[in-house]
Amino acid sequence: MAITTLAKAAKVGKKFQKMNIQKKNYKTVIFDLFGTVALWDRNKLPRFTWLGEEKISTLGALKLVLEAETAISFTDFYRSFHETNLTIENQRNESAREISSQERFEKTLQGCGLEYCQATTELAKRLSTEHMNLLERGCFVPEKHVQVIKALSESYSLAIVSNFDHSKTARSILSRDGVYDYFSHIVISEEFGWRKPNRLIFEHALGLLKSKSIETLYVGDSLKDDVRGAKNVNLDVAWVNASPKTKCGTSLTPTYEIASIIELERALLKI
What we know:
This protein has about 270 residues and is of the alpha/beta class. The protein has 2 domains: about 10-40 and about 140-270, Rossmann fold; about 55-135. About 50% of the residues lie in helices and about 15% in strands. The chain is built from 11 helices and 10 strands. The strands form 3 sheets. Strands 7-6-1-8-9-10 form a 6-stranded parallel β-sheet, with helices on both faces. β3 (about 45-50) and β4 form a beta hairpin. α2 runs antiparallel to α5 (about 120-135). The longest helix is centred in the N-terminal third of the chain and has 22 residues, at about 75-95. The chain is elongated and about 60 Å long. Residues about 1-15 have low confidence and may be disordered.
Protein backbone atom coordinates (compact mmCIF):
# COMPACT_ATOMS: atom_id res chain seq x y z
CA MET A 1 0.00 0.00 0.00
CA ALA A 2 1.35 3.42 -0.96
CA ILE A 3 2.37 5.85 1.78
CA THR A 4 -0.28 8.35 0.66
CA THR A 5 -2.94 5.64 0.89
CA LEU A 6 -1.77 4.64 4.35
CA ALA A 7 -1.82 8.25 5.48
CA LYS A 8 -5.30 8.71 4.10
CA ALA A 9 -6.55 5.55 5.81
CA ALA A 10 -4.99 6.62 9.11
CA LYS A 11 -6.62 10.02 8.82
CA VAL A 12 -10.03 8.43 8.23
CA GLY A 13 -9.54 6.04 11.15
CA LYS A 14 -8.53 8.87 13.46
CA LYS A 15 -11.56 10.89 12.35
CA PHE A 16 -13.99 8.13 13.23
CA GLN A 17 -12.16 7.17 16.41
CA LYS A 18 -12.58 10.72 17.63
CA MET A 19 -16.32 10.44 16.98
CA ASN A 20 -16.52 7.11 18.85
CA ILE A 21 -18.47 5.42 16.08
CA GLN A 22 -17.00 2.08 17.19
CA LYS A 23 -18.87 2.36 20.51
CA LYS A 24 -22.25 2.47 18.79
CA ASN A 25 -24.26 -0.72 18.55
CA TYR A 26 -25.98 -0.06 15.23
CA LYS A 27 -28.04 -2.84 13.73
CA THR A 28 -29.61 -0.90 10.88
CA VAL A 29 -28.32 1.61 8.34
CA ILE A 30 -30.77 3.70 6.30
CA PHE A 31 -29.46 5.48 3.21
CA ASP A 32 -30.63 8.41 1.18
CA LEU A 33 -30.48 7.57 -2.53
CA PHE A 34 -29.45 10.48 -4.77
CA GLY A 35 -26.15 12.11 -3.86
CA THR A 36 -25.45 9.35 -1.36
CA VAL A 37 -25.80 5.88 -2.88
CA ALA A 38 -26.33 7.01 -6.48
CA LEU A 39 -24.48 9.95 -8.03
CA TRP A 40 -25.15 12.21 -11.00
CA ASP A 41 -22.84 12.13 -14.03
CA ARG A 42 -22.96 15.64 -15.48
CA ASN A 43 -21.45 14.39 -18.74
CA LYS A 44 -24.42 12.08 -19.29
CA LEU A 45 -27.16 14.51 -18.31
CA PRO A 46 -28.94 16.22 -21.23
CA ARG A 47 -28.22 19.82 -22.10
CA PHE A 48 -30.57 22.37 -23.61
CA THR A 49 -29.96 25.83 -25.00
CA TRP A 50 -32.75 28.38 -24.81
CA LEU A 51 -32.44 32.09 -25.58
CA GLY A 52 -28.67 31.72 -25.78
CA GLU A 53 -28.27 30.04 -22.40
CA GLU A 54 -27.18 26.41 -22.05
CA LYS A 55 -28.45 24.43 -19.07
CA ILE A 56 -28.51 20.84 -17.87
CA SER A 57 -32.11 20.09 -18.68
CA THR A 58 -34.43 17.55 -20.31
CA LEU A 59 -36.44 20.33 -21.96
CA GLY A 60 -34.89 19.71 -25.39
CA ALA A 61 -36.34 16.21 -25.53
CA LEU A 62 -39.65 17.39 -24.08
CA LYS A 63 -39.83 20.03 -26.82
CA LEU A 64 -39.72 17.26 -29.44
CA VAL A 65 -42.59 15.39 -27.70
CA LEU A 66 -44.70 18.55 -27.60
CA GLU A 67 -44.07 19.42 -31.25
CA ALA A 68 -45.01 15.89 -32.32
CA GLU A 69 -48.24 15.72 -30.34
CA THR A 70 -49.66 19.20 -29.65
CA ALA A 71 -49.95 22.72 -31.01
CA ILE A 72 -48.75 24.20 -27.71
CA SER A 73 -45.98 26.72 -28.26
CA PHE A 74 -42.77 25.78 -26.51
CA THR A 75 -42.50 29.31 -25.14
CA ASP A 76 -45.79 28.81 -23.27
CA PHE A 77 -44.70 25.37 -22.07
CA TYR A 78 -41.35 26.70 -20.89
CA ARG A 79 -43.04 29.48 -18.90
CA SER A 80 -45.64 27.16 -17.40
CA PHE A 81 -43.03 24.51 -16.57
CA HIS A 82 -40.95 26.91 -14.50
CA GLU A 83 -43.97 28.51 -12.83
CA THR A 84 -45.29 25.05 -11.93
CA ASN A 85 -41.92 23.97 -10.55
CA LEU A 86 -41.77 27.04 -8.31
CA THR A 87 -45.32 26.44 -7.04
CA ILE A 88 -44.61 22.77 -6.34
CA GLU A 89 -41.38 23.59 -4.52
CA ASN A 90 -43.25 26.01 -2.27
CA GLN A 91 -46.00 23.47 -1.61
CA ARG A 92 -43.50 20.77 -0.76
CA ASN A 93 -41.67 23.03 1.66
CA GLU A 94 -44.90 23.98 3.40
CA SER A 95 -46.63 20.61 3.56
CA ALA A 96 -43.87 17.99 3.07
CA ARG A 97 -46.30 16.18 0.77
CA GLU A 98 -44.90 14.65 -2.41
CA ILE A 99 -46.20 15.61 -5.84
CA SER A 100 -45.52 13.05 -8.54
CA SER A 101 -43.65 13.75 -11.75
CA GLN A 102 -46.78 13.03 -13.79
CA GLU A 103 -48.83 15.47 -11.72
CA ARG A 104 -46.10 18.08 -12.26
CA PHE A 105 -46.53 17.75 -16.03
CA GLU A 106 -50.33 17.69 -15.79
CA LYS A 107 -50.21 21.02 -13.97
CA THR A 108 -47.73 22.36 -16.52
CA LEU A 109 -50.02 21.42 -19.41
CA GLN A 110 -53.04 22.92 -17.68
CA GLY A 111 -51.01 26.10 -17.28
CA CYS A 112 -50.70 26.10 -21.08
CA GLY A 113 -54.47 26.08 -21.42
CA LEU A 114 -55.20 22.35 -21.79
CA GLU A 115 -58.19 21.07 -19.87
CA TYR A 116 -57.92 18.23 -17.40
CA CYS A 117 -58.93 15.12 -19.36
CA GLN A 118 -57.65 11.70 -20.38
CA ALA A 119 -55.69 13.10 -23.32
CA THR A 120 -53.90 15.60 -21.07
CA THR A 121 -53.13 12.87 -18.53
CA GLU A 122 -51.67 10.62 -21.23
CA LEU A 123 -49.51 13.42 -22.63
CA ALA A 124 -48.28 14.25 -19.13
CA LYS A 125 -47.37 10.60 -18.65
CA ARG A 126 -45.35 10.55 -21.88
CA LEU A 127 -43.54 13.75 -20.92
CA SER A 128 -42.78 12.38 -17.46
CA THR A 129 -41.51 9.09 -18.90
CA GLU A 130 -39.18 10.85 -21.35
CA HIS A 131 -37.96 13.18 -18.60
CA MET A 132 -37.21 10.28 -16.25
CA ASN A 133 -35.56 8.13 -18.92
CA LEU A 134 -33.04 10.91 -19.50
CA LEU A 135 -32.42 11.41 -15.79
CA GLU A 136 -31.92 7.68 -15.29
CA ARG A 137 -29.18 7.63 -17.93
CA GLY A 138 -27.34 10.38 -16.08
CA CYS A 139 -27.41 8.65 -12.69
CA PHE A 140 -25.34 5.70 -11.52
CA VAL A 141 -24.25 3.75 -8.46
CA PRO A 142 -20.40 3.69 -8.51
CA GLU A 143 -18.84 0.25 -8.33
CA LYS A 144 -17.12 1.19 -5.07
CA HIS A 145 -20.53 2.05 -3.60
CA VAL A 146 -21.87 -1.32 -4.75
CA GLN A 147 -19.07 -3.06 -2.88
CA VAL A 148 -19.67 -0.96 0.25
CA ILE A 149 -23.36 -1.76 0.28
CA LYS A 150 -22.72 -5.46 -0.31
CA ALA A 151 -20.23 -5.56 2.57
CA LEU A 152 -22.50 -3.66 4.96
CA SER A 153 -25.48 -5.87 4.09
CA GLU A 154 -23.64 -8.83 5.60
CA SER A 155 -23.57 -7.15 9.03
CA TYR A 156 -26.49 -4.68 9.03
CA SER A 157 -30.08 -4.44 7.86
CA LEU A 158 -30.12 -1.82 5.09
CA ALA A 159 -32.86 0.40 3.73
CA ILE A 160 -33.37 3.37 1.41
CA VAL A 161 -35.43 6.47 2.23
CA SER A 162 -35.52 8.83 -0.74
CA ASN A 163 -37.26 12.03 -1.78
CA PHE A 164 -38.12 11.38 -5.41
CA ASP A 165 -41.22 11.98 -7.49
CA HIS A 166 -40.97 8.89 -9.71
CA SER A 167 -40.46 5.70 -7.75
CA LYS A 168 -40.19 3.50 -10.84
CA THR A 169 -37.05 5.34 -11.93
CA ALA A 170 -35.48 5.23 -8.46
CA ARG A 171 -36.04 1.48 -8.22
CA SER A 172 -34.82 0.95 -11.78
CA ILE A 173 -31.49 2.65 -11.03
CA LEU A 174 -30.95 0.47 -7.96
CA SER A 175 -31.85 -2.68 -9.89
CA ARG A 176 -29.83 -1.81 -13.00
CA ASP A 177 -26.67 -1.13 -10.98
CA GLY A 178 -26.95 -4.28 -8.89
CA VAL A 179 -27.76 -3.06 -5.37
CA TYR A 180 -31.54 -3.41 -5.16
CA ASP A 181 -31.55 -6.75 -3.36
CA TYR A 182 -29.17 -5.59 -0.63
CA PHE A 183 -31.89 -3.35 0.84
CA SER A 184 -34.57 -4.89 3.02
CA HIS A 185 -36.93 -1.98 2.33
CA ILE A 186 -36.99 0.90 -0.14
CA VAL A 187 -39.19 3.87 0.74
CA ILE A 188 -39.70 6.47 -2.01
CA SER A 189 -41.66 9.63 -1.24
CA GLU A 190 -43.85 9.31 -4.35
CA GLU A 191 -45.16 5.98 -3.08
CA PHE A 192 -45.36 6.92 0.59
CA GLY A 193 -46.78 10.42 0.11
CA TRP A 194 -44.64 12.29 2.64
CA ARG A 195 -41.18 13.74 2.04
CA LYS A 196 -38.13 14.24 4.20
CA PRO A 197 -37.59 16.04 6.53
CA ASN A 198 -41.09 15.09 7.75
CA ARG A 199 -40.74 12.56 10.56
CA LEU A 200 -43.45 10.28 9.14
CA ILE A 201 -41.29 8.89 6.35
CA PHE A 202 -38.48 8.06 8.80
CA GLU A 203 -40.89 6.48 11.27
CA HIS A 204 -42.41 4.45 8.46
CA ALA A 205 -39.00 3.07 7.50
CA LEU A 206 -38.15 2.24 11.12
CA GLY A 207 -41.46 0.42 11.42
CA LEU A 208 -40.79 -1.65 8.32
CA LEU A 209 -37.34 -2.53 9.63
CA LYS A 210 -38.62 -3.17 13.16
CA SER A 211 -35.67 -1.07 14.28
CA LYS A 212 -35.31 1.40 17.14
CA SER A 213 -33.85 4.87 16.67
CA ILE A 214 -30.99 4.14 19.06
CA GLU A 215 -29.78 1.21 16.95
CA THR A 216 -30.15 2.91 13.57
CA LEU A 217 -27.75 5.12 11.60
CA TYR A 218 -29.08 7.34 8.84
CA VAL A 219 -26.80 8.41 5.96
CA GLY A 220 -27.55 11.30 3.58
CA ASP A 221 -26.14 14.32 1.81
CA SER A 222 -28.78 17.01 2.46
CA LEU A 223 -28.55 19.10 5.60
CA LYS A 224 -32.19 20.16 5.31
CA ASP A 225 -33.79 16.86 4.32
CA ASP A 226 -31.44 14.25 5.77
CA VAL A 227 -29.70 15.74 8.80
CA ARG A 228 -32.70 17.69 10.05
CA GLY A 229 -35.12 14.89 9.21
CA ALA A 230 -33.07 12.20 10.94
CA LYS A 231 -32.62 14.34 14.02
CA ASN A 232 -36.41 14.88 14.12
CA VAL A 233 -36.71 11.19 15.07
CA ASN A 234 -33.53 11.02 17.19
CA LEU A 235 -31.48 9.12 14.66
CA ASP A 236 -27.71 9.37 14.52
CA VAL A 237 -26.85 10.73 11.10
CA ALA A 238 -23.75 10.57 8.93
CA TRP A 239 -23.73 13.61 6.65
CA VAL A 240 -22.17 12.91 3.24
CA ASN A 241 -20.30 16.10 2.44
CA ALA A 242 -18.50 15.66 -0.87
CA SER A 243 -17.24 19.26 -0.84
CA PRO A 244 -14.71 20.18 1.86
CA LYS A 245 -15.68 23.84 1.42
CA THR A 246 -19.25 23.17 2.54
CA LYS A 247 -19.83 23.64 6.26
CA CYS A 248 -22.89 22.78 8.31
CA GLY A 249 -24.45 25.46 10.49
CA THR A 250 -24.42 25.25 14.25
CA SER A 251 -28.15 24.51 14.30
CA LEU A 252 -27.72 21.40 12.12
CA THR A 253 -24.82 19.38 13.45
CA PRO A 254 -24.62 15.81 12.11
CA THR A 255 -23.38 13.00 14.33
CA TYR A 256 -20.65 12.21 11.80
CA GLU A 257 -19.35 13.82 8.62
CA ILE A 258 -17.98 11.74 5.74
CA ALA A 259 -16.91 12.47 2.17
CA SER A 260 -18.63 9.36 0.79
CA ILE A 261 -20.16 6.10 1.95
CA ILE A 262 -16.79 4.45 1.37
CA GLU A 263 -15.58 6.07 4.60
CA LEU A 264 -18.66 4.77 6.36
CA GLU A 265 -17.73 1.21 5.47
CA ARG A 266 -14.25 1.65 6.91
CA ALA A 267 -15.71 2.89 10.18
CA LEU A 268 -18.56 0.44 10.64
CA LEU A 269 -16.69 -2.66 9.55
CA LYS A 270 -13.35 -1.61 11.11
CA ILE A 271 -11.52 -1.91 7.79
